[in-house]
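User: Hey, quick favor. My workstation is busy. Could you predict this chain's structure for me?
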Amino acid sequence: MQPAPRRWRLSDAEPLPGLHPVIGQVLAARGFDQAAAAAFLDISGGYHDPFGLPAMEAAVAAVQSTVAEGGAIAIYGDYDADGVTACAMLTRCLRAAGATVIPYIPNRMTEGYGLHAAALAELAAQGARCVITVDCGTSSVDVALGRPANMRLVVTDHHLALAPGGSAPQLAPADALVNPKLPGSAYAFDGLAGAGVAFKLIEALESRGVVPVGSSEASLGLAALGTIADMMPLRGENRVIVRDGLPRLADLPGLRALCDVAGITLPPRGTDIAFAVGPRINAAGRMEDARLALELCLCDDPDEAMRLAMDLDIQNRLRQQAVALALAEAEEQVANIDDGAAAIVLGDPGWPMGIVGLVAGRLAERYARPAFIACLDPAEAKGSARSAGGVHIVKALDGAATSLLRYGGHAAAAGFSLEASRFDEFRELITASVSEQNAEVERVRDFTIDCEISGIDVTPELCQVLDQLEPSGQGNPAPLLAVCGARVLGTSTFGSESQHIRVTLATGSGIVEAIAFNKPNLADHLPRGRIVDACFGLEVDSFQGFQRVRARLRDLRPARAISLTGQPVGAAVSSSAS
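Assistant: No problem, here it is.
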């Protein structure tokens, strides 16, 4: 199998009038009209009423009663950054209210995802009178039914998967089930992360005087981190949460230390969270135990916070090494797969369970095929799947259900488990199931370029203009810009293993300094003097009081005689015209 061919796309929409020409082109390319653009750029609106969420009244009543009785409350999270941040924010605000709080994060390796009966029994033995789940629990029907006697259960979640075959989902019988995706929900926005739903619970508790005034505002940093790290769409209320939350991250010693270790300037940008902070939080659950990340989020001592941040940084480096090794081994296997195969289905007993989802994501992107990657543990093989080509992953797994022990997720990603001895059977079934969905799909890696610019426009001033589009992330990506007909002046490598490259490009009217991470072989294709087109995102690098603009390369191609707009090279939208 060969990597999917790359294709550049640029809208021919006219820039919206009345705006900076680059901003006008970006928003026009994304389908905004004048009114929609004005609404997008003005996110001064507030938050939706938390009591619009299903069962929020019942959730507040259950928590309020437990606090009044002096009973302990357990916060049952998930082992990813969304679950960890949600667990941390509820633990913080309920402790500030004087409650006894027991935070609990299951271990990915020994327990797995979701609500577990043994964990509830353990929490009951520790005195928990009420359990609040975050980022899990909606489908835990049997566990909720069999929970310890007299234990209140409040489920806050944002997952909702149809039962196999597309039938209505079964819902956990909890005292309250707060989930914006529930059938019949009238809440104005259904794209909240698990951390976002937990934040709305805190808003509701604060409004009823259960937790101190200011609790919701103090939770915004964690809510923003969880929202970005879980790749929730940055639109609607999520965009407001992230806008308000990013400056508040520095309020927490643990997150401030983690930004320091990661080399992030405060306040962080959405991309900083997505590519540097979030992966370090997630690394704990992938490599060892997510409770290390929870400790960091709860830590108020700067010295201890720095120690924990450095430990997480080490875990992240180990995670990177494990992914690189597994990915190299997977690529060797992919080379032997027929290029017409509908899916990539691979397994190996040596691939750590915590990183198979990352490998699946990389392969799905590179080959434009859905990827199903498993750790073939003899006791129970567990895997992760990532979508490509419009394939609905859970529906694909429905077609292979007879070979699986369990599975669940959503359209873009899912987890599954099976007996290792049935993996070949699973490969045949899942490949056939995927084929039914995407037999006619064109397999190509698209780069949707928002605006072609001139090299002279690559300035700190343009970056300030583009800040109007922040916060950026899933559903609102940072603008992808392009220069065409640029000449390579030189390349060099950097990094501890020379794994990154730096490229200097000259256009007829300016110089572009560009970097690409983890692409050491790219330098071989960029001899001095070569003429290329480059697409990239822009970022400002501050060092010793000086600012410089770097282009973070996304793709390069041999220059074409005609630019992306169909005009001669050099006839790009220019911000200098404003």
